[in-house]
Amino acid sequence: MIDQTRARSAAKTLLGDFNGLLISDRYSVYDFIDPSRRQACLSHLARTFQAFAERDGPAARHGQTIRTVIDEVIRADTHARHAGQRICWDEGELNKIHDRLMDAVEAGERCKTLELSRLCGTVLDIWPTLWNFTDHAGAEATNNRCERAIRHAVLWHKTSLGAQS
């Protein structure tokens, strides 16, 4: 669907009576989807924290720590899927990573860098949406595969003046 805007109304029209698991960035337009049916893309989140990791000072340390732990979650998910296994956030190795990520995000929320503190607060607010991939068979921790599948259409859209052409 091509729409003039990226508004919530367009998302509602596109998704209709959605009953699956939506894996997406943290764009607020999707907030109408019940959190139990949303998976925040961990790759998008990792890139956001990478931007802090490239700064100086405490924000850089927090950003790098959080980015590293998110990467561990993604690797654990990828490894489990390739091995034909399911993983749970509340048991085994992923539980240890889950707890380390929680500690790191809480530490980031206490950081004196306001932008990082707010981001970490937002991540804590949507915390369950980081782990829904473990409750849905076939779901992934990222939307990378989908984004790669539509990349050619996105590039075409950008070079052809988008919805204005």
List keywords for this structure.
globular, mainly alpha, 2 strands, 6 helices, 165 residues, two-stranded parallel sheet, single chain
Short description:
This protein has one domain.
Structure write-up:
Helix 3 runs antiparallel to helix 4 (92-109) and helix 4 (92-109) packs across helix 5 (114-125). The protein has a two-stranded parallel sheet with strand order 1-2. The model has no long low-confidence stretch (mean pLDDT 89). With 165 residues, it is mainly α. It is 55% helix and 4% strand. The chain has one domain. The protein is globular.
Strand and helix map with partners:
Blueprint: H1 8-15, E1 22-24, E2 38-40, H2 42-53, H3 58-82, H4 92-109, H5 114-125, H6 144-159
Parallel strand pairs: 1-2
Helix pairs in contact: 2-3, 3-4, 4-5
